[in-house]
Design a protein that fits this description.
Helix content of chain A: over 70%
Strand content of chain B: under 5%
Number of domains of chain A: 1
Helix content of chain B: over 70%
Distance between the termini of chain A: 27 Å
Shape of chain B: elongated
Order of helices and strands of chain B: HHHHHHHHHHH
Largest sheet of chain A: none
Structural class of chain B: mainly alpha
Distance between the termini of chain B: 29 Å
Strand content of chain A: under 5%
Radius of gyration of chain B: 20 Å
Number of strands of chain B: 0
Shape of chain A: elongated
Oligomer: heterodimer
Largest interface: A-B, 34 and 34 residues
Number of helices of chain A: 10
Chain lengths: ~260, ~280
């Protein structure tokens, strides 16, 4: 790593970890994801566990449902990492000290990615570990629902993939924030793009809805699926995650394009 | 005019000036209308009659269970994002600029200020919400007809004069007013626009998304609790198997309860906190 890149990364890491909002959003991501996953597992039950019958619920997906709410503070984390400097005006100092703006953008994105991956992994892993026993208690037992553990490759893929999905989401927010430069606008746009379409899609007829589900930024959550059922998107776990990654890449490219062309 | 009434009039007038003189207000109201109508038309163009019970005889009961009124008004599910942003900003802009100190110095009755703010917010949201939902309905119906939603297929013509239709349209406008005030209350509580919008949209959308992944009776309960799923039940004119299990007005009542609780909390906090 060149000296310039290292200096940029160190500076951005200090900025990210030393603001209070980072602590709050990190706590919220873990608490909300684990809390909602556990709550839904604790109150839910199944009646598809008759002997010999194959249950079609996905116990791995069911243990990670809190992600739908936990992604909201993750958006805030990714957005604030970028917009706080525009709000306070520190961005002028930053660009004076390190005039290579793409370097700063890359450093900020790296700092966000590292933190998001770490927090996302904790949230996802805790959700899985806490929720599995609760699901057993709710009737998800053999033979329809054999016990899954972290030694199963599909379970590992789901848990690690959820962390990767959350990281991509945080980076998407960082990219949008670099383009719009306001926390409010960035948060509104990202939350709108990640939550609203899932509800809106329900109004469309089957085939169109299936298509929309596969091109939406939330397509990446298909990485959680371990047992295919009638409503499983045909793109597959990795295909879905690639769609989310494409959305993230597009906003980061947009950010790289705009950040060098504006006054600060 | 009594002192109290004069304070209220002053608070209403000053808050109205603050709200209408920032450009974001007009833009967000316009966005609510455009997105609501636009998405409503998109859904009206996309839906087809195949959603009815399979193998049914056209015109017979049980055939044609799509709700043509609800489909044409579905844009509110997306348009409300701009309404929420408007409500939040109506609360937080005073704190962002520090004007709140001048406001509270001029009108020390803080609860009057908060109520005046929510009233001047609700009025334009209700008015534009009514325009958006009436236009969505009127523009959407002809599109639905050409998509096969005709009396021969079990879909009788509906008009603004039908009581359920009028209720759905007025109810949609009321819902937007209620959700705008909810955003306003959350904004008053957090005093930061970013966090307020994130929290409000999470409460609005996340229970609805999670309910899609749950079985009964959990799904029904989560939908009854969700301000959006319950509140927009007011659009329903045809009961279906997958309808939110709550009455039309009772549903709007749930959304109103969320707003009321948030607003009362906001007023208590504003009275207790330092400006």
């Amino acid at each position: 790593m060149s000296g310039l890149a290292r200096r940029g990364l160190r500076a951005e890491w200090i900025k990210l970890r030393s603001v209070r909002s980072t602590t709050w959003t990190v706590l919220a991501i873990v608490a909300v994801t684990v809390g909602v996953s556990a709550l839904l597992a604790a109150v839910g039950s199944t009646d598809a566990n008759k002997a010999g019958a194959t249950g079609d619920d996905d116990v791995v997906v069911n243990s990670l449902r809190g992600i739908w709410l936990g992604q909201v503070p993750m958006v805030a984390l990714g957005a604030i990492a970028m917009t706080s400097e525009f709000a306070t005006g520190t961005i002028r100092t930053t660009f004076t000290a390190l005039p290579h703006r793409l370097n700063t953008l890359a450093a900020k994105a790296t700092a966000v990615a590292v933190l998001a991956l770490a927090v996302g992994s904790v949230a996802s892993l805790l959700s899985f570990l806490i929720t599995q026993p609760l699901l057993h208690g709710g009737g998800y037992v053999g033979p329809a629902y054999p016990i899954v553990s972290l030694t199963d490759t599909s379970a590992i893929r789901a848990v690690a993939g959820t962390a990767v999905y959350l990281t991509l989401l945080a980076l998407f927010a960082t990219g949008v924030a670099a383009i719009v430069r306001h926390t409010t606008t960035a948060t509104t746009l990202v939350v709108a793009v990640f939550l609203a379409p899932t509800v809106a899609m329900e109004f469309f007829p089957g085939q169109l809805r299936e298509l929309l589900q596969q091109v939406a930024p939330t397509a990446g959550l298909s990485i959680q699926i371990t047992s295919p059922r009638y409503d499983t998107p045909p793109l597959g776990p990795w295909g879905g995650l690639t769609v989310t990654a494409a959305w993230t890449l597009a906003t980061l490219l947009g950010a790289a394009w705009t950040i060098g062309r504006r006054d600060v | 005019m009594s002192n109290g009434a004069r304070t209220i009039t002053r608070a209403l007038r000053s808050e109205w000036t603050k709200l209408r003189s920032v450009s974001s207000t007009a833009w967000l109201l316009l966005t609510t209308v455009v997105v609501t109508i636009g998405f409503g038309l998109l859904v009206s163009s996309a839906v087809d009659t195949s959603g009815g019970a399979p193998g049914c005889v056209p015109g017979r009961p049980g055939c044609g269970d799509e709700d043509v009124v609800l489909n044409s008004l579905s844009g509110a599910y997306l348009g409300q994002i701009a309404t929420v942003a408007l409500g939040v900003l109506a609360a937080t802009s005073d704190y962002a600029t520090g004007t709140n100190r001048a406001t509270f110095a001029a009108i020390p009755q803080r609860s009057t200020v908060v109520i005046a703010k929510s009233a001047v917010l609700a009025a334009p949201v209700l008015a534009t919400g009514l325009v958006a939902s009436a236009a969505s309905f009127l523009l959407g119906q002809p599109i639905l007809h050409t998509n096969g939603f005709v009396p021969e297929q079990g879909y009788p013509l509906v008009s603004l004069a039908d009581p359920p239709v009028a209720r759905a349209i007025i109810g949609t406008a009321l819902y937007l007013g209620v959700i705008g005030v909810f955003g306003f209350a959350v904004g008053t509580i957090t005093r930061r626009a970013g966090s307020a919008i994130a929290i409000t949209l999470a409460i609005v959308y996340a229970p609805a998304i999670l309910s899609l992944m749950l079985g009964e009776p959990l799904r029904g309960w989560l939908q009854r609790l969700s301000p959006m799923m319950s509140g927009l039940a007011v659009q329903r004119t045809v009961p279906r198997a997958d309808s939110v299990p709550i009455g039309t007005w009772a549903g709007l009542g749930v959304a109103a309860a969320w707003s009321a609780v948030a607003l009362v909390t906001a007023i208590r906090l504003v009275r207790r906190r330092d400006a």
